[in-house]
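COMPLEX REQUEST
Ligand: fe (ii) ion
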Amino acid sequence: MDVDNICPFTPRAARSTASGDRVLYRFAIISDPHVALPETIWQNPRRFHLVEVSIPALEQIFDHLAHLNLDFLLIPGDLTQHGEPDNHRWLARRLAQLPYPTYVIPGNHDFPAVSERTRTTQAQFVRFYRAFGYDQGHRPYYCRAIAPGLRLIGLNSNQLSADGTAIDGYIDEEQMAWLDRTLAALPPDELVIVMVHHNLLEHLPDQGNHVLGKRYILENSDPLRQKLQAAGVQLVFSGHLHVQDIAEADGLYDLTTGSLVSYPHPYRTLALREDGDGRLWLDVQSHRIATTPDWPDLPTQSRDWMGDRSEPFMRKLLEHSPLDLTAAEIDAYVPHLRHFWADVAEGDRAIDYPELPPAVRAYCRSFGAIAPNGTPHRRDNHTSLPLRRPTPWAIAPAPPQSPTTRRERIDIRTKIVKESVGLS
Ligand SMILES: [Fe+2]
Ligand SMILES: [Fe+2]
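STATUS: Structure written out below.
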């Protein structure tokens, strides 16, 4: 069966807005859903991720997205709690039923060796998600045209230990060489988007050097960034950090999306829009899950959940460079910072603790939505990013899909998933 049949070049027709702008493509991002069926939930009082909400939150989002006439959905990794095959199977089956194509990549949580019983190998992952980007053999990365004028590169940033456990964020040499060949062969009339689990750009102050932050950014982010910039790539979508943030370096954006199972339980809807002057924009909107049957006031409950578990993390932040505080100082300041990480995760928050000493206060402030010159800078959740338009651009929006076409594609995806999960 040809998987290309499930995502042929038939996007929704371009939609005109009242201002004369045209929405060319509409899509969504859900990151780090950490799917956990109830019977698979790891019971540990120190567990940081509120995986209990993963499935009810996903269902709410799917209900919302069903009304948006989406062209595609992206999920940049950490699809499951701990790589449990049962959780991967549930997700693959559920994604098959959606009326739009979904593209996924693996995160570090998709390969951990919690036990032999729950291990998912890289080869199994590729097979599970054959209908969601991985139809080109056994490689855990891919490049595919997903719509006229639009190409997606899905990278695998998991460096695995000898036993198959994900240990660091790294694009290996083989994949870098493949990327060189792939980028060199791309037609110039396409807009290229990249999905990678670990961050490409820094989303926290000095993230690449900080003892806490550096495990969230690719070890070889610099050469990858240079490669992508040289190829004219403008959009990278990452996850892993569980924070809402948009970073930019010389026209290259890394939009990292927070986790569905961490405060503030966000997801994003996006539109590629052409304005009346022919300029191209990426419109970004962010949404949050506010309640689930078992978590009626999710923002408050989840913020407290995170606050209850973040003290060890906050102690490390204060203990290490640049603050290098003493144990007594840390004991004094850490109670004030109970909601620090939740505020960072929200994006667009001014973070200020006037009761703390100037150096500590200034360092905390630098994690907030603030520009280098000290002015507020809020574009993590809702913004319009200017893009360079490929010239020429081979976009040719097609008519809307009929319900029959949509049903046929769901049936094809479902059949592929049935074959795939049956082989595992
Ligand atoms: Fe995650
Ligand atoms: Fe992760």
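REMARKS: Confidence is low (pLDDT under 50) at residues 1-13. Residues 32, 34, 78, 107, 109, 240, 242, 259 surround fe (ii) ion (ligand 1) (CB under 6 Å).
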